[in-house]
Write a structure and sequence with these properties.
The complex is a heterodimer of chains A (236) and B (445). Chain A has 11 helices and 4 strands. By secondary structure, chain A is mainly α. In chain A, a hairpin with a 2-residue loop joins β1 and β2. With 445 residues, chain B is mainly alpha-helical. In chain B, 77% of the residues lie in helices and 0% in strands. Classes of the chains: A mainly alpha (236), B mainly alpha (445).
């Protein structure tokens, strides 16, 4: 059996050896980070955004690269998932975007600050994170009908991009999407295309007590969305 | 107690009790918010509650460790603390900085970096305060009659903990660098040098409680802390899987994280073996319960649940979900919270001269808090696994999944209520002990 001095030697030598390996790996890692993380994309805007992200303690509710708190959505790929317009609208007035849902503090950010944060989130999305966040891989088994058009709704190419980024945050279609507002299946049978256009332009002008906010949509996007929505007939 | 100056420890323990109680309040705020009752959102939004909850944990544990050092070191070194006056100054400074930080969080004065939210100007004060503490403890050992393994391991643990606070202060504009250095502090604390502190305190308790020969216990201390560093240093790699660092960390982190439970398993086996070997008449059953409790719960929470969650294939899906909260709660409870509560239970009758250690409230506190924490871990686990499958595997919307798992937070809040009942009993018993007597005994049982 080991004597006390041998045990001590085991502790000291082991600690020294593994500390040395760890420091070596750290040096190597720092040399590789720039390539892996697209460090050339670190513009002054992105850097300001990163510090603003820290200053507001966004990590206190959200995760980024999987790190943070578990109260609000993961933000690593949010730029790809929701698009710039949605992120900007959300940062401008969080409670309008998810009425009656879990609340995000309105930080009264300036337009410049919103641009910085958006740039930061866009940059984070370009990093190579060794496969994180993983793509959902069970959806085919869970709802075969919904997946016929592709892996998930984000991938569905028959839908306008703005629909896949913005509308599904609150509304579901064919069982996929949010549950904040009503599902959109069959909406084309209920409303005329012209009505949908007016609605998308400003929901509150038609129905002042509506929970749906006026979204930052261009006329082109409104036309595209209304055309798409009016094809969603009942029984299809 | 053997030395007059050990009395200082009492006040550190009292601060621990206060901050711990406050920590629970913020835990409930978050539990209710997860259930959909976020009525305090405008005053204490979730990120404030979260920063406060975790920082209070760190503060009350550090206060407990400092108290433990002020209690243990005089006995081990066989002399009074270098300067009792400066020890009180150190305590007061610690409390002032801590309370300022906590209040600051409520006004968004923070850094917004998970676990290291304390703002930079206060960081410097923390460093100064810890230097003073290290100086007092180191000086006491240096001038002491004896250098014991226990006191040296404890000192080495405290010193490296202080040094490892520094990487967290490196300025960077890069999210990956930021995260990389942050884990040097957080991981190398809790899965590295804090385990030295834990090992040394556990060692002290076992020597005192079981009567087993010091040489045997201290030999095992070296082996266990040896295993801790062997696995824990490169085990940091499990934080470097998905933050923009090279792929080899998946291998390094995976292998060495899998070894990490060994140190905790060693600690558990050693504590149980020594307790069985001991032939001393136990006059503080509660302290022995906490000692065995910390050894076993740290193996389950930090060792086993940590292992289950850090395999790269699993972590790809569980990273950044409530599964982390499951592991985190039981790991901190087992390894560090129970340890500090155990040392307090051991020291209180000796500090105050009142024998309330085995009172009904004290035994009730042990069992109720441990059962409560186990139930909390299960609730977090169910919510976390459900979240992993619904959100990560099936791709359902985040908020939709959160609604789906709200019910498990009802379970969590109920379990947390049971846990809180246990802690109330502990604090109540602490208060009943009264203040330190200042009486120095010739021989401590």
């Amino acid at each position: 059996m080991l004597s006390k001095s041998q045990a001590k030697a085991f502790f000291l030598i082991g600690t020294a050896a593994f500390s040395a390996i760890f420091i070596g790996l750290t040096v190597d890692t720092f040399q590789r980070i720039p390539d892996q993380t697209n460090s050339s994309g670190l513009t002054p805007e992105v850097i300001r955004g990163k510090h603003l992200f820290d200053k507001k303690n966004c990590m206190g509710c959200h995760t980024i690269m999987g790190e943070g708190a578990y109260y609000a959505p993961e933000l690593t790929k949010v730029f790809e998932r929701r698009g710039e317009a949605f992120i900007r609208a959300m940062l401008k007035d969080p409670e309008a975007m998810y009425p009656g849902e879990r609340k995000m503090t309105n930080y009264q950010l300036s337009d410049q600050e919103i641009s910085d944060l958006t740039a930061f989130l866009k940059w984070v999305g370009t990093m190579d994170l060794n496969g994180f966040p993983p793509k959902p891989d069970l959806v085919k088994i869970a709802s075969p009908s919904a997946s016929s058009g592709g892996q998930s709704i984000v991938k569905s190419s028959d839908r306008p991009n703005v629909f896949n980024q913005m509308c599904v945050a609150c509304h579901a279609l064919r069982g996929e999407g949010g549950a904040v507002g009503p599902a959109l299946d069959g909406i084309g049978s209920k409303f005329e295309r012209s009505y949908l256009e007016k609605w998308l332009k400003d929901p509150l002008a038609i129905k002042p007590d509506s929970k749906m906010p006026k979204l930052p949509l261009s006329q082109e996007e409104i036309n595209e969305l209304a055309a798409f929505l009016s094809t969603l007939k009942e029984g299809e | 107690m053997k030395f007059q100056s050990q009395k200082v420890a009492y006040w550190f323990f009292a601060v621990s009790m206060l901050l711990f109680s406050l920590q629970l309040v913020y835990g409930f705020i978050m539990g209710f918010a997860h259930m959909g009752y976020d009525g305090l959102h405008n005053i204490i939004p979730f990120n404030v509650a979260r920063a406060t909850h975790t920082n209070l944990l760190v503060m009350w544990l550090l206060s407990g460790f400092m108290g433990a050092a002020y209690y243990i070191i005089p006995e081990e070194a066989e002399r009074e603390i270098l300067s009792v006056k400066w020890a009180y100054v150190q305590l007061i400074a610690f409390v002032v900085v801590g309370i300022t930080a906590i209040i600051g969080f409520h006004f968004q004065w923070w850094e917004g970096r998970k676990f290291l939210e304390i703002p930079r100007p206060l960081d410097y004060l923390v460093v100064v305060d810890v230097l003073l503490f290290i100086g007092l403890i180191g000086g006491t050992i240096w001038r002491g009659k004896k250098y014991t393994t226990t006191s040296l391991v404890l000192f080495f643990g405290l010193l490296t903990a202080a040094l490892l606070y520094l990487p967290g202060m490196i300025e960077t504009d890069h999210q990956t660098h930021d995260s990389y250095w942050r884990w040097w502090v957080v991981h190398l604390w809790v899965e590295g040098v804090w385990e030295l502190i834990m090992g040394a305190i556990l060692c002290f308790l076992l020597i005192k409680l079981t009567g087993v020969d010091r040489e045997i216990i201290e030999k095992w201390l070296y082996i266990i802390v040896g295993f801790t560093f062997l696995s824990g240093i490169l085990g940091t790699g499990h934080h470097y899987y998905y933050i923009g660092t090279p792929r080899y960390w998946l291998m390094v982190g995976g292998v060495f994280s899998a070894l990490e439970p060994l140190a905790f398993l060693g600690m558990a086996i050693y504590a149980i073996a020594m307790a069985r070997k001991g032939n001393k008449i136990i006059d503080n059953r509660a302290a022995l319960l906490w000692t065995l409790g910390t050894a076993i719960m740290s193996f389950v929470g930090a060792g086993f649940l940590g292992f289950a969650h850090t395999l790269p294939q699993v972590n790809m899906y569980t990273h950044g979900t409530l599964v982390t909260a499951m592991h985190g709660h039981m790991a901190f409870w087992g390894a560090y919270a129970s340890l500090v509560l155990g040392l307090i239970t051991y020291a209180m009758p000796l500090l105050t001269g009142r024998k309330l250690q085995d009172s009904k409230a004290s035994i009730f506190a042990f069992w109720t808090s441990n059962i409560g924490m186990t139930a909390m871990t299960i609730a977090f686990g169910i919510a976390g696994v459900a979240q992993v499958y619904l959100e990560r595997k099936m791709g359902l919307d985040f908020l939709l999944v959160q609604k789906e798992i709200e019910v498990h937070f009802l379970g969590l809040v109920l379990a947390a209520s049971l846990f809180t009942l246990g802690i109330i009993a502990f604090v109540w018993n602490f208060i009943r002990f009264g203040g330190p007597s200042g009486e120095v005994e010739g021989r401590v049982v």
